Amino acid sequence: MQPASAKWYDRRDYVFIEFCVEDSKDVNVNFEKSKLTFSCLGGSDNFKHLNEIDLFHCIDPNDSKHKRTDRSILCCLRKGESGQSWPRLTKERAKLNWLSVDFNNWKDWEDDSDEDMSNFDRFSEDSQDSDDESKYLCKKYVYTVIFHIRDQTLKIEKLTCLKFLEDT
Asked: Which long-range contacts (C-beta less than 8 Å, at least 24 apart) are formed by 76-82?
């Protein structure tokens, strides 16, 4: 038995954790106020995975959900206090080799909205599992381009920053 590899990211009202287990069976996710327990059998050899996470802050276990796909299990944890940033997922500062930040889904607070939860709601437990379910998750990328401008005539140099948002 070993922990499943997982990626996580933070939003204003929710924390998302994706356990990366292909062909999972017997998935069990237990949400408690300050703890998350995940277990399943995975792969063709039915290897047993178990993850126990003491969370950084409290969550609302009744309003937290999970969704299984063929490639992973996505958990949506409703924060106990909305708008409170989580600098890490776990209560302890220890580095866990099976846990990483999902930088593809991380975004700045000023760009945050509730669109992620509405997209997650499209994944009801009654729907059929499908690899193309991920098409409902809208990814937004913020690009920052910095220009170095040198004006020989005025003998000045300055940096100009340009940000733009791209939906994919």
From this structure: 76/14, 76/15, 76/16, 76/117, 76/120, 77/14, 77/15, 77/16, 77/17, 77/31, 77/36, 78/13, 78/14, 79/13, 79/14, 79/15, 80/33, 81/57, 82/12, 82/13
What's the pLDDT tens digit per position in 125-163?
A: 444 444 444 334 444 455 555 555 555 566 555 555 555
* Predicted TM-score (pTM) of this structure: 0.67
Contact 84, 57 (CB under 8 A): yes
Residues 31-49 have pLDDT tens digits of 999 999 999 998 888 899 9
Percent of the chain with pLDDT over 70: 64
Residue with token string 């098409």: 135
